[in-house]
Specification:
This is Proline iminopeptidase. Pfam families: Abhydrolase_1. GO terms for molecular function: aminopeptidase activity. The chain has 314 residues and is an alpha/beta fold. The protein contains eleven helices and eight strands. Helix content is 38%, strand content 16%.
Length: 314
Amino acid sequence: MYPPIEPYLSGRLQVSEIHDLYYEVSGNKNGAPVVFLHGGPGGSCRESDRSYFNPEKYKIILFDQRGSGRSNPIASLQDNTTWHIVADIEKLRVELGVEKWHVFGGSWGSTLALVYAQTHPERVRSLVLRGIFTIRKSELRWFYQEGGTSNLFPEAWDEFVSVIPEEERGDMVKAYHKRLHSEDEGERKAAAKAWTKYEMSTSRLRTDPKAIEKASNDDFANSFAKIENHFFVNGGFMKEGHILAKENLDKIRHIPTIIINGRYDVICRPSTAYELKKNLPDAELHFVPDAGHSGREEGTVKLLIQATDKFADL
């Protein structure tokens, strides 16, 4: 990755009566603007996210989505949908005086990148997408129901289901939703930690203890689990199959696109990336042979940087 840098501008953008978002800008003030869309939902930007981009060529824009990271109010579900966030991205573009920008997103960030591009195709110079997630029922079943990821990480699966009574395990997302909104604080915290630990335990080909440790932080786990579950129990607030629908993909066929997916990604399965490529034949698709889901695995980082370098002069 490129060397660490500090932002030359940071601020807050009031996007509704209750939500204000943290944003920052680093790199070259006169460079090609790029917006980084973090994962989750309910994750946040990190300092190292700036380092996917050549700071001499890019004006690097990061922000924390509604209810996430340094944005306020933390963990809020009010007026927090895919469409609200897409509108926020556009408000941020206008706020920063950007005419057209590159869009970079991984995992849930790839979902947002695709929906934003389909909504505002005239504002997108390129798409760099990692860990493709289109929030269909089949994708959620793969990760949150027995028969998919559970076969590859059985010990993590056992921990994940342990907080849910057997009779409710037919719909784990719904069962967790009930507990994440329980009046019992202890039950809420236990559910948030278990939900978050499951994802952190399965995100890399080689499990990272530091990532798993994040799940023990009550504040992070609460925000991450509550927001992520809120989106998933509501199907992303989109019609099933919305992103891959021909009429929506037709809107972005002209946009230069690079798709990168870990071959052993058990959170956002490679078949979704392949399906997107088949429906966007002009896009580049790269499977990373020695990586899982994380955007921090060596082979994935290498391809992501190659992608941003390729698009820097567009």
